[in-house]
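Q: What structure does this chain adopt?
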Amino acid sequence: MRTRSRVQGSGFRVQVGFGWLVAVLLVLGFAEGVAQDKPRVISLAPHLTELAYAAGVGDTLVGTVDWSDYPSEAAELALVGDAFRYDLETILGLDPDYALAWRGGSPAAAVGRIESLGIDIIWIEIRSLDDIATALETLGERLGSAEAGAAAAQAFRSELENISSRQADSGDRRTVFYQVSARPLYTLGQRHVINEVFELCGLENVFSDLDTEAAVIDIEAVLAAEPDFIIAGHENDDSDPLARWRNTRLVDEGLTELHRVEPSLLVRPTPRIIQGVEHVCSLAR
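A:
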């Protein structure tokens, strides 16, 4: 009886062990299937990289372009080029399913070459602040995280509505010149979302009539516009992007206020633009 008991016990242990092994294999197989189902994505613009993370699909990214510096995880991604030129060999090696392209910014011919490799293109166009929320929803839906994308979009819209409700419309808008770079002197035209930022803060872009995203202009055009504010984007270094205006006394600082801002908070159409809006509105008060 004892012997039989041991045999039965041993058989029981074998059966349990075998069942445990099957369960583990099933779980591992399921996990592998999930991993295989997750799309592989490359981003062709820094703000698209940031939007992907904000929409909860950052874990699908396998490559991006230069200057994709937010969030910090983006620095770990493989580089496939810059905003205008892409390394097709590197892209092929990453074996992506999708490429995120910026309509109005990513060069169509270069994107077409990526598409010819059999990679689906997800075009994102942002012409207004609400388009940022729409982009979050689109990325979430297309890349398997619809709930996270929708939640991020709703949070962004709520913050935007909160800012809008706090801004009193005096009716008399002051003017602003936004300097992207000093040499050459670049600014942003009517197609850029920054115009809506300025409007929220009671300001008007002196070059909002330019039918473009960005344009090179001359100093004389800025002086002729007589802006109340000159706001310049600056990187984290010791250079002064407003030195040209201060040192040559091209403007009277008693009449034209000069301010520096972090460009990624205003130029990149991502949820962080809320911080840029808050800052600009504080300057305009």
